[in-house]
Amino acid sequence: MKKTFKYQLEIEVVIxxxxxxxxxxxxxxxYNSIEDFADxxxxxxxxxxxxxxxxxxxxxxxxxxxxxxxRIK
Length: 73
Known about the structure:
The chain has 73 residues and is an alpha+beta fold.
């Protein structure tokens, strides 16, 4: 017998909009907008769901990622 368990994953990208240019050196070169940057971070997180970054280590680059997991009954 097979059992299926469903989960919902929410990824929140929080960006220090005032300081992202200073903290993330290639921001101006690689991204046209803050939305492009957020989409990029989101896509990377979706591809690497098992990778956990410490929020503190990302904040030095001007952003953080919050993952919320919930089991769906």
